[in-house]
Amino acid sequence: MSRHLLAMRLLEPTQITEILSTAAEYKELIVGGGRVERRNEKSVGLLFFENSTRTRVSFEQASHYLGYHTVNFSGAGSSMSTGETLKDTILTLRYERLEALVMRHQASGSPVLAARYFDGPVINAGDGQHEHPTQALGDALTILERKGDIQGLRVAIVGDVEHSRVARSNAWLLHKLGAEVRFVGPRTLLPSHTGKLPGTVYYDLATGIADADVVMCLRLQRERMSDGLLSSTGEYTRMYQINRSTLRYAAAEAIVLHPGPLNRGVEVDDHIADSDSSCINDQVTNGVFVRMAVLDWVFREAKEAQLA
Description:
Blueprint: H1 13-31, E1 43-48, H2 54-66, E2 69-74, H3 86-95, E3 100-105, H4 110-117, E4 122-127, H5 133-147, E5 154-158, H6 165-176, E6 180-184, E7 200-202, H7 205-208, E8 214-217, H8 233-240, E9 255-257, H9 270-273, H10 280-307
Parallel strand pairs: 1-2, 1-3, 3-4, 5-6, 5-8, 6-7, 8-9
Helix pairs in contact: 1-5, 1-10, 2-10, 3-4, 5-6, 5-10
């Protein structure tokens, strides 16, 4: 039976820490100039129905380090553009003997559907407004490097939480590892029903990030917004931008994260984005190593099942 990574909500804390530990080991090895021992070559399909730079490239790089072969697909270039269903596309990739599938799709829950029909591991690279688990893992590795532990941290997720799959995956991961999670932003950009998400809502920036150890800023996802949710970008910037003045409300050694793409001058100003408090570039780097660890994790389960 294949092991999938579909949602952070479905993982146990021990599984999260296992993946993060493996990612840290891979980073130490590769940054130190070492090479990963080559495994039996695997074929990994990258099926992206939404545009991506960071996630796609980091999966390609992770596969390269592990000695795996990647096959790229896009929604525009697939048979779905001529009317083929997602189910039949997944079945086609299965019978073309791909051994794992990394999938990004605009519909929430689409990787779950893929996992039903693909005979191998499926990794969710972002589905609609649902989750983006590998991004959350990269963020967690970055926090661990700067803070040493996640247990007991106060983490404020600021901005367009309503449309952010990154926010949802991070909320579940951070909660499972013992952090206090806060959602901060305009009422129209926060979920109307947060009972199922582990976090506390704040509409005022100063109150929401007060004494926070980590401030995670989110992009305004205008492509997912309906009209009227945001009066103007300028008003949002005045009320919720993280800059030298507003970051003073957070803890003295607070760090700032942003999953990208970054809109400088909107969610974060230039000073903070380029300051020692910023971990934005570290998040990009760590995305490669957590995706190595995830590929290792899903394939290791399949190998153990074969040996059993």
